[in-house]
Specification:
The protein contains 29 helices and 27 strands. With 859 residues, it is an alpha+beta fold. It is globular.
Length: 859
C-alpha cells in the first residue's frame, strides 16, 4: 500500500463526501478547479450538460459608481456522474450573494474563478440553479451615459455565472432595468417595457440558440433609426452627432446589410437563421465589429463617413458590414467546438465578405481589393520569427484572445481562396452548404469540414491542409531563366521556406512576361520544391518577369531589377503586386535599400504615375513607413524638405479629391520642417484645408495632436481644439490623449505610470493611440525607458484586456523604435524569461520585427 500524505487523505475524504467515482479521469476532473476554462473541463461539461437556458435580470443604475445587481436562473439537463459541477464566474466570492440549487439554498463554494456545486445537490435530468449576484464589470464597458458588453472569447464569465464555452449553446431570456431615458438593445426581440419611477425595464423574448460569447446588450443615450430591409425590420442605434455624416451614411448602412443578407441567403441556401437583425454604432469600440446574434456592434467611426471619405474608407465599411453579417451563418449558426478553431469563423466571414463585395464591383476592383486587404497584413506576421500557424493549440480558454491576428483574418482567406481554386467553386460551395446544414445551431471542427470537402475532390486535402493550415511561415520563390537566341528555353521556379527550408506550399499563382508592346500572363501550379513553366518555352525573352500578377499566390516573390517602369502596366493588380514585392524584398534585404525605395516611391507620387486611389494609399503608407521607421534620424531630417515639397506639389496638382486626401494625410504625417508645420498650423487655425480636401472634426483633432507631438503649439493649441469639439465622446478622447503628447517629460512619465491601472486602460483604442504618441519616432530617445515596463506588463494586459489589445499594446510600444538599445531590451527580456507564455512570446517577436529590421536596415 502506497503512503498517503495528509493532503491526499483530505482529498479522499472530499471525494467520498461528494460521492465521486474513483476512476482516474473523473478524479482528475474533480480535483482540477483551475483558473480559466481548461479544455478538459469544457469537454467534460459538453458530455454531461444539455438544454441550457439562462433567465437573467440586471439592474443598471445611472451612476457608474454604483454596482449592477443581478439574478440568474440557469436551467439544464444533467447526465449525473458524481462529479462536482463547475460554473464559470471570474469575480471575487463576495459577488455571489445567494445560491439555490433545485429550490434549496446552498453554501457558496467559489474557487479559482468557479462556482462549484456539490453533485449531491443535483439531479439526474432537469436542474435549476438560482444565483443572486453582483455583476462583474471587466467586460461591461461602462461610460457616463452608456454601456455595452463585449464577451468574446471568455468574457461572459466576467459578468455573470455561466458555462462559458462555445460548445454549450443556450437560450437567454433577459430583463434589463436602466435609467428611463436610456434605450436598450439585446439579442432577442423586445416583448415589452415598463417604466417605474426613474427606471425602465426592458423584457426580452427568449433568444435563439447560441454560445455565451455572443450574448450581448447595449444600453444608454442613443438615437435609433429604423428601416425595412429585404423584408426585415432593422434598427440602428447610434451616438453620432454630425448631421452630415448621419445623412450621408444612415441609408448606406442599412443598404449594405440588405445586400449582404441577400447574397448570403443565396450562396448558403439557408434563409437568415435568427429572429432579428439590429446593430449599434459604438464610439471607440475595441474592434471594427462584433457579430452578436441579432445585435451586431460596430465601431462608429467606420460606419459614419462624410463626403470626404476615401475609397479605402468606403471599402472598409462595406467589407466590415459584409464580414459581420456573414458571421450570422459562419460562427453564430455553426460555431467552432473549441476556440482553437476560432479562425474558422473569421476566415469564412472574411472569405464571404470578399465574395459579397465582389458582387458589388467589377472583377478588377475586387482582385485589387483582395490583394491590398489581405497580403500586406498577413506578410507582416509571417515574415517574423513569431509567425504562427492558422490553426493553433489552446489548452485553456483564457488564452484564446492571443490566437487572433492577421494570420486568422488575412492569411486564412488567401488559403481559402486557394482551396476553392483547387476544388472548383461549385464543389466548394456545395461542401459549405452541406457543412452549414449538418451542423446548424451546433458546433463543428475544422476536421469536420475537411471531411465534408474531401468527399468532393480527388485532391488529398489532408496533406494540403498540413502545410497551409498547420504550419507557419511563407515560401521564398526564386527562378532560373534560360534563353538562347532571344528565345526562352527554360523557366524553372524553386521554393523553400523563409525560415524552415521544408516549407513547400502547394499553390496556384500567375506570372507575367512583360514585353515592350504587351504583357503575357501564365498560370503556375507549384506543389513541391520546383516547377518548370513549360508554357513559356519558345517564347521571346521578355523585358522582365513579374510574379504573383493575379494577387492570389502567397510568399516572398522575386523582384526583377529590370522592372523599373511598373507604373506603365495597365493592370492595377499587377502594379499593386509589384509594389508589394518591392517593399517585401527591401525588408528582406534582397533589393533596394530603404532610401532607394523611398526615392522610387516619391517619384511615383510626385509625377502622378499611380492613378488608382487604393494603390496610391498603399504607396503612401510604404513611403511613410520607410521614412519614419527605416531611415536614421539624420537622413530623415536631411530628406524631409524634399519629401514634404514633393507630396505638397503632388497634392496640389492632383484633380481627384480622394487622392488629394491621401496625399495630404501623408504630408501631415511626414511634416518636420518649420515651414511645413507652419502650413499645417495655418490650415488648423483657419480650418481651411487645401482646395479639394475636406477635413472632418476627427481629422482636425488628429492634426492638432500631430502638431503638438512635433513640438508645435503645445497645450494652448490643444485647449483651443478641445473648445471646438461638439461631440462629447470625441472630447473625452482628446482629454485622455493630451498628457501623451505633452512637451513636458514629467507629464508623459506620470501618464505612462497611470497605465498600470486596468481602469485607466479601459478605453483600449485610446490607450493604443496614446502609446503611439508616447513612442512617436521623434520621442523614442525619451520613451525607450518605458519598454521594460511595457514587456513586464504584457501578461496582465492580456488578462485584463480584450483580444486585440496585447498586440496593439506591443505594436504601439515597439513599432517606432529603431535603436540597438531598444532591440537589446526586447532580446534580454526574452532571454531572461525562457518559460514565458508561448502565445505572448510570439506576439512579442511579431511586434518587435520592425524594430529588429530597422536596427539592421536604418543606416
Amino acid at each position: 500500500m502506497k503512503w498517503c500524505s495528509p493532503v491526499h487523505i483530505l482529498s479522499l475524504i472530499t471525494l467520498f463526501s461528494f460521492s465521486v467515482s474513483t476512476a482516474h479521469a473523473q478524479l482528475s476532473i474533480t480535483n482540477a478547479v483551475e483558473k480559466g476554462v481548461p479544455e478538459r473541463l469544457a469537454q467534460h461539461r459538453s458530455k454531461v450538460l444539455s438544454s441550457v437556458q439562462y433567465n437573467m435580470l440586471l439592474s443598471i443604475p445611472v451612476s457608474k459608481a454604483e454596482k449592477i445587481k443581478g439574478e440568474i436562473t440557469i436551467a439544464f439537463d444533467l447526465k449525473k456522474d458524481g462529479v462536482p459541477l463547475q460554473l464559470d464566474f471570474k469575480e471575487s466570492p463576495e459577488h455571489i450573494k445567494a445560491v439555490k440549487v433545485n429550490g434549496k439554498e446552498v453554501k457558496t463554494v467559489h474557487k479559482n474563478e468557479h462556482l462549484v456545486i456539490d453533485p449531491a445537490q443535483l439531479a439526474n435530468g432537469p436542474n435549476k440553479i438560482h444565483i443572486v449576484f453582483t455583476a462583474g464589470e471587466l467586460s461591461l464597458n461602462r461610460n457616463n451615459d452608456f454601456l455595452y458588453t463585449l464577451l468574446v472569447p471568455d468574457r461572459a464569465r466576467t459578468v455573470f455565472p455561466c458555462f462559458d464555452q462555445p460548445s454549450i449553446k443556450a437560450r437567454y431570456q433577459l430583463s434589463l432595468t436602466v435609467p428611463k431615458d436610456w434605450l436598450a438593445l439585446a439579442n432577442a426581440r423586445l416583448k415589452d417595457s415598463v417604466v417605474s419611477g426613474v427606471a425602465k425595464t426592458y423584457h426580452y423574448a427568449p433568444s435563439d440558440l447560441f454560445s455565451t460569447y455572443l450574448f450581448s446588450f447595449v444600453a444608454g443615450r442613443f438615437t435609433v433609426a429604423s428601416k425595412q430591409v429585404e423584408g426585415k425590420p432593422m434598427h440602428l442605434y447610434y451616438r453620432e452627432t454630425d448631421s452630415t455624416k448621419i445623412r450621408l451614411s444612415r441609408d448606406t448602412i442599412f443598404g449594405l446589410h440588405g445586400l449582404s443578407l441577400r447574397y448570403l441567403e443565396e450562396y448558403t441556401g439557408i434563409p437568415y437563421p435568427f429572429q432579428k437583425l439590429d446593430f449599434a454604432a459604438i464610439p471607440d469600440f475595441q474592434y471594427g465589429g462584433m457579430e452578436h446574434v441579432g445585435a451586431i456592434d460596430y465601431k462608429a467611426s467606420t460606419l459614419f463617413l462624410d463626403s470626404g471619405a476615401t475609397r479605402d474608407q468606403e471599402n472598409a465599411r462595406s467589407s466590415l458590414i459584409a464580414h459581420e453579417t456573414a458571421h450570422m451563418w459562419f460562427g453564430d449558426l455553426v460555431t467552432m467546438q473549441w476556440f482553437n478553431d476560432v479562425w474558422m469563423k473569421e476566415v469564412f466571414a472574411n472569405f464571404m465578405a470578399d465574395k459579397i463585395t465582389q458582387s458589388q464591383q467589377d472583377k478588377g476592383n475586387y482582385e485589387l481589393k483582395f490583394l491590398l486587404t489581405h497580403f500586406p497584413r498577413a506578410y507582416s506576421i509571417d515574415r517574423t520569427a513569431g509567425a504562427n500557424p492558422i490553426r493553433q493549440a489552446l489548452p485553456n480558454l483564457q488564452e484564446a484572445g492571443s490566437l487572433y491576428g492577421p494570420i486568422i483574418y488575412n492569411k486564412a482567406p488567401v488559403m481559402m481562396r486557394q482551396l476553392e481554386r483547387v476544388m472548383g467553386a461549385e464543389a466548394f460551395r456545395d461542401g459549405l452548404r452541406a457543412y452549414l446544414k449538418t451542423y446548424a445551431f451546433g458546433n463543428a471542427t475544422w476536421p469536420d469540414l475537411i471531411r465534408i470537402l474531401d468527399e468532393r475532390t480527388p485532391i488529398d486535402l489532408q496533406a494540403w491542409n498540413k502545410v497551409w493550415v498547420n504550419t507557419p511561415g511563407r515560401p521564398v520563390i526564386t527562378y532560373s531563366l534560360q534563353q538562347k537566341e532571344n528565345k526562352i528555353t527554360r523557366l524553372t521556379l524553386t521554393q523553400k521556406g523563409e525560415r524552415t527550408k521544408d516549407y513547400l506550399l502547394p499553390q496556384f499563382f500567375e506570372l507575367a512576361l512583360v514585353y515592350p508592346d504587351r504583357v503575357e500572363e501564365v498560370t503556375v501550379h507549384i506543389q513541391g520544391t520546383q516547377a518548370e513553366v513549360a508554357e513559356v518555352k519558345g517564347k521571346p525573352a521578355p523585358l522582365y518577369i513579374l510574379f504573383n500578377t493575379s494577387g492570389q499566390g502567397y510568399g516572398l516573390f522575386p523582384m526583377d531589377p529590370k522592372a523599373t517602369a511598373v507604373h506603365q502596366l495597365q493592370s492595377p493588380v499587377m502594379r499593386a503586386s509589384a509594389y508589394i514585392n518591392a517593399y517585401e524584398n527591401m525588408l528582406s534585404g534582397n533589393a533596394a535599400t530603404p532610401a532607394q525605395l523611398l526615392t522610387t516611391l516619391l517619384n511615383t507620387v510626385q509625377e502622378g504615375r499611380e492613378p488608382d486611389e487604393l494603390i496610391l494609399n498603399m504607396i503612401a503608407s510604404h513611403l511613410s513607413d520607410v521614412y519614419w521607421r527605416l531611415l536614421p534620424a539624420s537622413k530623415r531630417t536631411a530628406m524631409a524638405p524634399a519629401v514634404e515639397q514633393a507630396l505638397w506639389k503632388a497634392m496640389l496638382q492632383d484633380s481627384v479629391a480622394n487622392r488629394k486626401k491621401v496625399l495630404f494625410r501623408t504630408y501631415q504625417s511626414v511634416a518636420l520642417s518649420k515651414s511645413a508645420l507652419d502650413t499645417l498650423h495655418l490650415i488648423w487655425a483657419k480650418q481651411q484645408p487645401p482646395t479639394g480636401v475636406r477635413l472632418s472634426e476627427d481629422e482636425y483633432i488628429s492634426l492638432a495632436l500631430n502638431l503638438t507631438v512635433k513640438g508645435y503649439g503645445g497645450d494652448t493649441l490643444l485647449r483651443a481644439q478641445e473648445a471646438r469639439i461638439t461631440n462629447p465622446d470625441r472630447k473625452q478622447r482628446l482629454l485622455f490623449l493630451m498628457p501623451a503628447v505633452s512637451g513636458n517629460q514629467q507629464v508623459r512619465d506620470s501618464f505612462y505610470a497611470s497605465l498600470k491601472d486596468p481602469v485607466i486602460r479601459k478605453k483600449e483604442s485610446w490607450v493604443a493611440d496614446a502609446l503611439g504618441y508616447l513612442h512617436h519616432p521623434l520621442r523614442t530617445a525619451t520613451s525607450v525607458k518605458y519598454l521594460p515596463q511595457a514587456l513586464n506588463m504584457l501578461q496582465e494586459v492580456q488578462q485584463t484586456g480584450d483580444i486585440f489589445f496585447p498586440a496593439a499594446w506591443l505594436n504601439a510600444s515597439l513599432g517606432n523604435h529603431q535603436s540597438k538599445e531598444a532591440a537589446a531590451i526586447v532580446r534580454n527580456f526574452l532571454h531572461q524569461h525562457p518559460g514565458y507564455n508561448a502565445q505572448l512570446r510570439m506576439k512579442i517577436l511579431q511586434a518587435a520585427d520592425p524594430l529588429f529590421r530597422a536596427e539592421r536596415l536604418a543606416k
